[in-house]
Design brief:
3 helices, mainly alpha, 61 residues
Length: 61
């Protein structure tokens, strides 16, 4: 779980902005979205395969 500590001379807006960035970077929200519904292992393998293909295509350019 991401945590942030209030720095000296830092406003609530800046603190909240830093917290949101940490949450996005840690991947907590994407994990929760993925686990919201059950996906069968075969479906998960298919999704992972597509992701790998996209990553490899991006790396070649």
């Amino acid at each position: 779980m991401p945590t942030v500590v209030l720095r000296s001379n830092e406003g609530q807006d800046q603190l909240l902005r830093r917290f949101r960035k940490k949450v996005v970077k840690s991947g907590v929200l994407s994990t929760i979205r993925n686990k919201r519904w059950f996906t069968p292992p075969s479906e998960q393998r298919r999704i992972d395969k597509k992701k790998a293909q996209r990553r490899s295509r991006r790396k070649t350019y």
